[in-house]
Design a protein that fits this description.
By secondary structure, the protein is an alpha+beta fold. It is built from three helices and five strands; from the N terminus they run ββββαααβ.
């Protein structure tokens, strides 16, 4: 993950605007060149996003799900890797919460 650790914690980039509705999260990068399209996260992605906003690391995010950890962990890692590649999240301070 470029600029972000594999296990977190991560931080949401300061240029990302987002809103949490009852069943999904919508987010968009407001950084130049201002061409980003909004992301609409489903319930699963929203749960991970809210966890990221709370400063959770990988293992804490994995425990949010009622499923086998070895099945959940790769999906979360892939999702955070994609968010990082899009400049939406980066490495967080492990001492902050």
């Amino acid at each position: 993950m470029e600029g972000a650790s594999e296990s977190g914690p991560w931080r949401i980039d300061a240029h990302v605007a987002w809103v949490d509705t009852e069943d999904h999260v919508v987010l968009v990068s407001l950084a130049a060149p201002y061409t980003a399209l909004p992301w609409r996260l489903d319930a699963t992605g929203s749960l991970v996003w809210i966890g990221l906003a709370q400063g959770l690391g990988l293992e804490e995010l994995v425990r949010l799900f009622d499923a086998a950890e070895d099945l959940v962990r790769p999906g979360i890692t892939t999702f955070v890797r994609e968010l990082s590649a899009q400049g939406l999240v980066g490495a967080g301070d492990p001492h902050e919460r």
